[in-house]
Amino acid sequence: MALKSRSESKELKIMRSLNIRSNLSSKEKKYYFKLEKGFQGELMFDLLTEKLQADMLVINDLCLEVNDTVFQIDTLIIAQNVIYPFEVKNCSGDYYYDIDGFHKISGYDITDPLAQIKRCKLLLLQFLQELGYNIPVESTVIFINPSFTLYQAPLNQPIIYPTQIECFMKKFDRTPSKLNDSHKKLANQLISLHSNKSPYINRLPTYEYRKLKRGTACKKCNSLMISGGDKVLVCKKCGFEEAIESAVIRSMEELKFLFPDLKITTNLVFEWCQVVKSKKMIRRVLNENYKTIGYGRWFYYE
């Protein structure tokens, strides 16, 4: 049973918007595609853990801090006698392994996932000890992408390759496990101590409102090629249609997320959306869905 669902990281949401609204450098695009691909891989693993029938608790996307060190766990599963953190990799293509780690035969290397899970395991054990728990931890790397191949694969390492996943999950689901209130208490503690800090936030490029492209992004394909009508917006690229109210709220949320310190006004949202023809329509949507603060020239929404 999943106690904590997964959502896009702050970095991914920001980079997704910047990819639409600015001209990212090749390095920044590479970082964005890495985040997007990683998230899709985690969702693929979620589909597998949702099928587990064993008495276990699943916590997705956990970020914890111990001794001023922040660490992330893609998926953590609490069983009766063991805690299982999983590192999910959505790499594709041909790689080989040597003493220095994982290398792509043609392209960029990846961070050694074995080093990642070793670090994660040590930090998680420290974290649990601080909470008063003495529970074994078994970390595993899951290579989820079926087009991933690793040559010279290391033996006796906690790695599950694409061709092994189905068998591994069936075997894992047969793990003897009977949970009690102590396990549920631990799970709730971990979720309550989830940190919104990110060790990767400093990798984001700087951006300014005046330098970003305005417009309502298509909910389906992220294109800014939107045409406006009286009640519905239509994407010229993929044909997706969306009610104006829904599009305004979505655009407003994106604006707030990118610029949390901006005072949100009708004029600002009108300028940001571009294709909504009526300020009166935007004002109505904002009044119905957001709290109003102040009055006159100091009036804004939150």
Helices and strands in order:
Blueprint: E1 2-4, H1 10-21, H2 26-49, E2 57-66, E3 69-78, E4 83-89, E5 93-98, E6 101-104, H3 113-131, E7 140-143, E8 148-151, E9 159-160, H4 165-173, H5 181-192, E10 226-228, E11 232-235, E12 241-243, H6 244-258, H7 266-273, H8 279-289, E13 292-293, E14 300-301
Parallel strand pairs: 1-2, 4-7, 5-8, 7-9
Antiparallel strand pairs: 2-3, 3-4, 5-6, 10-11, 11-12, 13-14
Description of the structure:
This protein has 302 residues and is of the alpha/beta class. It has helices at residues 10-21, 26-49, 113-131, 165-173, 181-192, 244-258, 266-273, 279-289, and strands spanning 2-4, 57-66, 69-78, 83-89, 93-98, 101-104, 140-143, 148-151, 159-160, 226-228, 232-235, 241-243, 292-293, 300-301. It has a six-stranded mixed sheet, with helices on both faces. Strand 10 and strand 11 form a beta hairpin. The protein is globular. The mean pLDDT is 93.
Notable features of this structure?
302 residues; alpha/beta; three-stranded mixed beta sheet; 14 strands
